[in-house]
Amino acid sequence: MMMPPSPVSSPPISVLLVDDCSVFRQGLKNWLDLCNSTQGQHYRVVGQAASVEQAIKLTIDQKPALILLDIELSHGDGIKFLSHYRRLQQPGKVLVLSGHDEDDWVFRAMQAGAQGYLLKANLSTHLCSAMQIVMQDKIYVSPEIATCFFRQFHFHAGKSLKTTSNIRLTDREQEVLSCLVQGDSNEMIAQRLHITVGTVKAYLRGIFEKMEVASRTQAALKALKLGLVAI
User: Fold this and answer.
1) Residue 11 region, left (φ>0) first, then alpha (ψ -120 to 50), else beta?
2) Could you report the per-residue pLDDT of 64-123, keeping only the tens digit for each?
3) Which of 2, 124, 134, 144 allows an S-S link to 116, with CB 3.0 to 4.6 Å?
4) Going by C-beta distance under 8 Å and a sequence separation of 6 or more, which residues neighbour residue 170?
5) Taking CA 91 as the corner, what is the angle to CA 60 and CA 109, rounded to the nearest 5 degrees?
6) Are the C-beta atoms of residues 44 and 11 closer than 8 Å to each other?
7) Cβ(98)–Cβ(119) below 8 Å
8) What is the DSSP string of 119-173?
9) pLDDT recorded at residue 7
10) Residue 212 class from Cβ within 10 Å (0-12 exposed, 13-18 middle, 19+ buried)?
């Protein structure tokens, strides 16, 4: 009698920890071990960095799929790292871990290319779910700071709406962009619009070029800021 094949487990997600406190990095590693024991996905730490320079080198060498980034480092800060990382054009996701809940910190991090922003005070309850959401190509913002986040959108939108006329999207591009802002993955957009994933990717390339952005997060932020889509 033939035995059914064993289920194929997903490959581990490579993670880089960036924080200037070694004790906090070890705590993060412990939390990842806990996530591994309670979630279907496995996370594997491939490097630890205490500065922007170390983090950039490790991202080039290890190409992590997920970066857990402290926004405030002793030599430079997370915003500086995000600017460098964006220029490298690597596909890894960045989840910011911060003790700052001020509007400006949140908005600057997301505008610089982070896919998520989680308050350090909420790591024990939200880290596992935040990582899952970010790795699904969605945007994560701690519920406690969502109001601050969108308050910044309203503030900047008034200054930027006049530039909206410079961006001309087709009806289909508008639909794809609306889905993206809602946090849909490429697969979800394809199902919703009854097109292939390859077609979704082609539309996204055109949207990114027209909007002069390099990532899904930047496109979502700019779309909201310019009023291209409704919240």
Assistant:
1) beta
2) 999 999 988 877 788 889 988 988 888 899 999 988 877 777 878 888 889 999 998 888
3) 134
4) none
5) 90
6) no
7) yes
8) EGGGHHHHHHHHHHHHHTT--EE-GGGHHHHHHHHHHHHHHHGGGGGG----HHH
9) 45
10) exposed
Helix (H) or strand (E) holding 94, with range, is strand 93-98
Give me the DSSP letters along 34-90.
HHHHHSSS-EEEEEEESSHHHHHHHHHHH--SEEEEESB-SSSBHHHHHHHHHHHT-
Token pair belonging to 97: 């871990």
Q: Compute the distance between CA of residue 113 and CA of residue 215 in angstroms, rounded to an integer.
A: 7
The neighbour count for residue 53, using CB atoms within 10 Å, is: 14
CA 145 to CA 200: how far, in whole Å? 31
Q: What distance in Å separates the CA atoms of residue 43 and residue 128, rounded to the nearest whole number?
A: 10
Say which amino acid occupies 29.
K
What token pair was written down for 20? Answer: 């200037």
Q: 163 with 227: CB under 8 angstroms?
A: no
Tokens standing for 179? Answer: 């889905």
